[in-house]
From TrEMBL:
Signal peptide: none annotated. Keywords: TPR repeat. InterPro entries: TPR-like_helical_dom_sf, TPR_rpt. It comes from Aciduricibacillus chroicocephali. This is Tetratricopeptide repeat protein. PROSITE patterns: TPR. TPR repeats lie at residues 23-56.
């Protein structure tokens, strides 16, 4: 047994240097996890590194690579564009990474533009061979096909910009973009419904309601009209009319992930929290986890059902993946007016 004199003195204890992990520690752990294809662990470590150094371009680029690997192309591009906005000439590899993501998203002209720019500034860069291979794959000789591709890319770029603003509740910014899309692409039905929703959220409720009712009159089976009107009447306090539209959504199970998310969000907005949570759980392994609305409304629904632990976990995860969410109040702290006419199923 050691004697009293063998024990370290308080002076010796005070000389111990505590281990306080910094961003590089978490970054290294993230890279190790990525190399072992443990992508969720990699995301966790890299997000922790970014919490300590939010604007470190190396951390952002590495996290974007992980997001690309799991198909979260929008989230990856957000990080890469942020790096370029602040360090445009210092990180040219971002242009190739963007080109690769745009190719996956179907934005082929954007992919060609960014791959070409990368090769112009880095002809012998680390991704030169990959960029050349991508350009060969995207090369189209027919002028007519090229013109069609231009139109398609313009539409997809517009849709992506509108989607981002609506996901972050930037309705005033989204409105003129949607108007422009309706002028340039009058045959796109989604734009008209998005316009009605943005109008409603921006405060022009009567105009939005009139517009959506007009669209419903032209096509009574249009699911987007039912989605919007369920929310409009709910927030206007007309429970009976809201329920007429909501009930029809309960038996709708679309194939497209985006529509699945829209239905889950509307069910949450109209107070059908249990059904909404079931729909969100079915989406947990899909690409829509990269959308802020997934976290905003899944966490709210969980909280309203009494599962506060899940609500906090979801919201914190959403804030780590989407920094703008940190500027919002927690979804369950929204005005109680949203629930005055809710019918919890």
């Amino acid at each position: 047994m050691p004697s009293v004199k063998d024990k370290p003195s308080s002076k010796q204890l005070n000389n111990l240097v505590p281990f306080i992990p910094d961003g590089d520690f978490y970054f290294t752990k993230g890279v190790e996890a990525f190399r072992k294809t443990k992508f969720q662990s990699a995301i966790k470590w890299l997000q922790r590194a970014l919490e300590l150094s939010p604007k470190d371009p190396l951390y952002q680029c590495q996290l974007s690579v992980v997001y690309t690997e799991i198909g979260f192309f929008h989230s990856a591009n957000e990080l890469l564009m942020d790096v370029l906005d602040r360090n445009r000439d210092k990180y040219p590899d971002c242009y190739y990474l963007l080109a690769n993501n745009y190719a996956h998203l179907g934005l082929l002209n954007e992919a060609k533009k960014h791959a070409s720019f990368y090769l112009n500034v880095e002809p012998d860069g680390d991704f030169a061979d990959e960029a050349e291979a991508l350009l060969e794959l995207l090369d189209i000789d027919e002028e007519d096909d090229e013109w069609e591709l231009d139109n398609e890319d313009e539409l997809l770029v517009s849709q992506e910009a509108i989607f981002r603003h609506m996901e972050y509740l930037e309705w005033e910014t989204a409105l003129p973009l949607i108007q422009e899309m309706m002028e340039n692409f009058p045959d796109q039905p989604l734009a008209k419904h998005d316009y009605a929703l943005a109008l409603f959220e921006a405060g022009e409720r009567e105009k939005a309601l009139e517009l959506e009712l007009g669209l419903l009159e032209k096509n009574e089976d249009e699911i987007l009209s039912h989605l919007n009107l369920a929310v409009f009447y709910h927030e206007l306090g007309d429970k009976e009319k809201s329920e007429q539209f909501t009930k029809q959504l309960l038996n709708v199970y679309p194939m497209h992930e985006q529509q699945k998310l829209r239905i889950a969000v509307v069910l949450a907005k109209t107070g059908h929290y249990e059904v909404a949570c079931n729909r969100f759980r079915q989406l947990q392994r899909s690409g829509v986890r990269s959308h802020p609305s997934f976290y905003r409304w899944f966490s709210r629904s969980s909280y309203m059902l009494g599962d506060h632990e899940t609500a906090d976990r979801l919201w914190n995860e959403g804030c780590r993946k989407h920094a703008p969410l940190m500027r919002e109040s927690k979804p369950w702290e929204l005005s109680k007016n949203m629930d005055e006419n809710a019918s919890i199923q």
